[in-house]
Amino acid sequence: MIYLLRHGQTDYNRDGRLQGQTNSQLTSLGMAQARQMGVLLADLIDDVSGWRILASPLRRTRQSAAIVSQTLGGLPVEIEPALIEVGCGSWENRMYADLKAEHPDSFGLGWFFNSPDGERFEDVDGRVRPWLAALPPEGERKVIAVSHGVAGSLMRGAYLGLSREETLAQDTPQDAIFRLAGGAVDRLPCAPVAA
Asked: Is residue 57 part of a domain?
């Protein structure tokens, strides 16, 4: 089983700034969201022995994973490069509104792959598919993966065998966990937190 989490809200999310592989940090809301993900996981997992927490190397996922770890009794957090977010090149650190105004034809489904010097769908897909394939067999998987909006969508899409369009149309909440098990993906909402 895989429990897939997106990091909590960051200062970039709050401000409308594109992060990509840039480091940003959790807001107080983001920390509360991560705590609620940990609380939900503690309810879902009776015995944490054998479970692993894997996080993208970026600050926001490491912060979220550390908070989740605390609620689960201090499970160690392992860094997993395959979980890193799409790199958006020169678009990173820019405001979404400015990018959309400058490149209106680029802002459709999957717009984050349209940066002139960023990664493409195939780059991220080429990270998450081999990572999924290298995991233990499904019945032996005990993985909590803390990743990102785009990378997490591609992971769910790869797991379900979705088309590119179906993969990119998935939502990317910061207040829910996705359970990947038995060939299905279930969205598990966390308790709401105040902004």
From this structure: yes
The answer to the question of residue 108 being in a domain is: no
> Alpha-carbon distance 163 to 81, whole Å?
24
Q: What is the pLDDT of residues 93-149, one digit of tens each?
A: 999 999 999 999 999 999 999 999 999 999 999 999 999 999 999 989 999 999 999
- Residues identified as active-site: 7, 85
One-letter amino acid identity for 82?
A
Cβ of 87: how many Cβ atoms within 10 Å? 18
By three-state DSSP, how is residue 65 classified? helix
Domain membership flag for residue 99? no
Residues 56 and 62: their CA atoms lie apart, in Å, by 7
Q: What is the pTM for the complete model shown?
A: 0.96
Helix axes 28-44, 59-71, angle to 10 degrees: 40
What CATH number does residue 53 fall under? 3.40.50.1240
Residue 165 forms part of a structural domain: yes
For 26-81, the pLDDT digits (tens) are 999 999 999 999 999 999 999 999 999 999 999 999 999 999 999 999 999 999 99
